Amino acid sequence: MGLRRVLLLGEGNFSFAASLCGAAGTHVVATCYESEEDATRRGGAARSIRRLRDCGAEVVFSVDCTKLKDYFSPEKREFDCIYFNFPHCGRKAGVVKNRELLAHFFHSCAEVLAEEGEVHVALCNGQGGTPADQPRREWHNSWQIVAVAAGAGFILSDVHPFNAETIHGYKCTGYRSQDKSFHVEGALNHIFTRSTPPPCPKSRSCEAQLESQKVSFQVPQVLVDKINRGFLEPNSNHPVRTVKEKLTAGLSQAFPLQNIGSCLSLLQQGHLHGACHSNVFWITLSPAPSTEEMSHRLANTVLSSHIDSCQDTDKNVQGCHIPKQFYLRPSLLSHAQAIIQEGAFPLGTLHVLSGPVFRKCRVTPHSMPVFHEMLIVFAVNRGTESSCIQMLVNNIKTTIHSLHQTASGTKPGLNLQEATSFETTELDDFAAFESQLSKIQYFICMETDAPGCTVGVVRTSPELISSELVVVFASLNLDLLAMLLCGISDWRMLWTSDTRFLQQFPRGELRLFKSFSLYPPSYVHDVSFWVPDGEQFDEVAFHTIARRVSGEMVISIQLRDSFQQPGTGRRSLCYRLTFQSCDRALSCWEAAEMQLHFREQIQQHLGVTLR
To answer: Is residue 190 part of a domain?
Structure first.
């Protein structure tokens, strides 16, 4: 393994650099903005420079931190760590000038930093503008370091006190090594790492077998990075799979259990079983193209996905009649019902199905357009269903308690609540959608630091097999359970492509998640428009477009104002969108571009008139 290369910028008396030199396996390159003649005049600088050179370190003078690649040849640009302690433009420079300095500095770092390298920036208390600053300055009066770094593709991965007194021989100097030093009491060291690159919008096709016909379909854009991710595959160490395996193991100790194969079609046809048409992803299919046709796929579209409308239309592609009303499955219920109708459904045996399901939904903290459902199905004698359901939920509760205590050392509250005790307006999005599918007897709720949320539902279906038997369906949201058990605050993190997420979860283990992107910046934009006359505004479609054009970067959509024009009766709506990423850098100009694209898309797909 090669030497760890460390670059230090803006050194004053070189005492910080001197404290690092001599460390095993480390090569130090210490620089300052001043000339050698000016730098060596500072108290203690000459001694530190001699020590650095004696230890084999490089000392470079007159280095501009905004043009780093100019000072190092290509083979010497791969620094593992870059330090910049207390950057400042000097004199009476305000926050705007210092933000500009940091912006140029971070862009410069991106050209000389190793792929997995770190950038350490120490700032005086309050300058950074993050919640770690105590007291925290108003945002406009801070250096906004996380937002500035995001513009160069960096995320804040750690922040901790800069303890000057623990650094041997270190003496802080002021701007350009002036005798008046910076106030380092309460100072913070901000550690930045590279973000994963922005996703490239692209179409994606999938093939599926439907009865005797092989068909191709284009994945709706909002789901492109969420299809066939393999979270539940045997070689996966994803926490969603771990939750599923632990629950299955717990259930198998108390009940006979049969796992249904995972090869269940993503596509369904026909009746929605109560779900609202606007809440599903409608798909138009075509036969899968032959090998010769593959080269013409880009020129000849073989599918169109109805993201913002749900019209039922027949379509002829290449002379073939295509059935109407295909959609991505919003639930595993229909698969379970098909298995029951095939017979061979032993009394008391749990049949477990699991896989991703897809639902259009509003943008809220726990609303997921895709999540992994675990559906437990079993038949019991009529009159025993209540006791059997309680027994099942007690088993799930025991497993959840054990998992939560292992991960966090605490026990969550998990309880079974009768559906009749809830008003429709009290249901969260998961529970509300499940209520559309069929009547629910019980909600499985998990109490956390936040208000309790629904992680599962239980419903029964009498006379599905015979008049003496009742079939029980228990549906669990595995993604939400994984979030609550591992302390993951944002559902989008489950789908991140950043390898630092899965590295925290050894196979078969659940641990508390430590975010690698702290205090991500957020950007607020408003949009107002006139609704088409005489039409009901489709808010779910509005939210779905926001998800799609932003790549799931919109975390909140709030109705700010609703106005009806006197005389004409025209209705105007104003919404506020908040853009924020949980796992990668998002700059203010990227958010602004997303907002502009969003405005274009709602005008095109929803027929609104922008104001």
So the answer is: yes
